[in-house]
Amino acid sequence: MKIHGYAGSINVRKVLWTCMELGLPFERIDWGGGTRSVTDPDFLKLNPVGMIPVLEDAGQLFWESNSIVRYLAAREGRDDLLPFAPAERAQVEKWMDWQVSDFNNTWRYVFQATVRKNPNFQDEQQIAVSWNAFCSAVQVLDREFARTGAYIAGPAFTCADIVIGLSVHRWRSIPLERPHLQAIERYYDRLCEREGFRVYGRDGGL
Predict the structure, then answer these.
(1) pTM (two decimals)
(2) CA atoms of 23 and 15, how far apart (whole Å)
(3) Residue 45 phi/psi, 5° resolution?
(4) Which of 165, 166, 172, 192 falls between 20 and 30 A from 104, CA-CA?
(5) What is the pLDDT of residues 59-118, one digit of tens each?
(6) Which residues are paired to 27 by β-bridges?
(7) Other CB atoms closer than 10 Å to residue 185's CB: what's the count?
(8) CA distances (Å), 149 to each of 146, 152, 157, in order?
(9) Using alpha carbons only, what angle is made at residue 66 by residues 99 and 32, rounded to the nearest 5 degrees?
(10) Is 63 helix (H, G, I), strand (E, B) or coil?
(11) Are 201 and 17 in contact (CB under 8 A)?
(12) How many angstroms separate the CA atoms of 79 and 100, rounded?
């Protein structure tokens, strides 16, 4: 199994953490993030849209990070991480879909501005709008964690926590004043009990 993408990417780290949860060995190959360009024709043979990560497994290629997470859990028959029953599975997948769409869109600008120091993302008004939206989304999560008492889809850790957890870690990395959210802090502490999160979340980058 090969994972194509540089280790600092949040989307690559979703896949790396999943592999650790599943006990799957892999080879990681650098692409993107200042390594080899994802516009290289050799990479576009792996993924025609030029995005990392790409999973290469048994002669097949998979891309889109959340889809890869789902694929690996299903491949290993891990009903605890991705339930087989349609209704239970949908409770997990709805949060994964929200993470990759609405949630991601809140933090892109403020993250590029304050962490990546990207000169193209320095409009103070847009930084404030992005940060407020990011905090509002995290407050939604805080209420859910208070309700479930544990993880985003209920009392047990699932694939949804891999993708949500890395975004929560990113929220905590933004060097701006943030609200104290007790349920979020308890959730983060629970994630830190997992080796995969300690390696690829807490200590793996932003």
Answers:
(1) 0.96
(2) 12
(3) -70, -30
(4) 192
(5) 999 999 999 999 999 999 999 999 999 999 999 999 999 999 999 999 999 999 999 999
(6) 2
(7) 14
(8) 5, 9, 12
(9) 100
(10) strand
(11) yes
(12) 22
Evaluate the CA torsion angle 42, 48, 50, 52 in order and state its sign.
negative
Total residue count of the chain as it appears in this document: 206
- Listing from the earlier edge strand, what are the strands of the sheet with 60-63? 27-29, 2-4, 54-57, 60-63
**Phi and psi for 60 in degrees, rounded to 5?**
-110, 150
Burial 53-71 (b: 16+ CB within 10 A, else e): bbbbbeeeebbbbbebbbb
Report CA torsion sign: 194, 196, 200, 206. Answer: negative
Neighbouring residues of 28: CB distance < 8 A, sequence distance ≥ 6: 2, 3, 4, 5, 7, 12, 16
For residue 182, the 8-state DSSP code is H
Please give the Cα distance from 9 to 15 (Å, whole number). Answer: 10
Report how far apart the first and last C-alpha atoms of the chain are (Å, whole number): 25
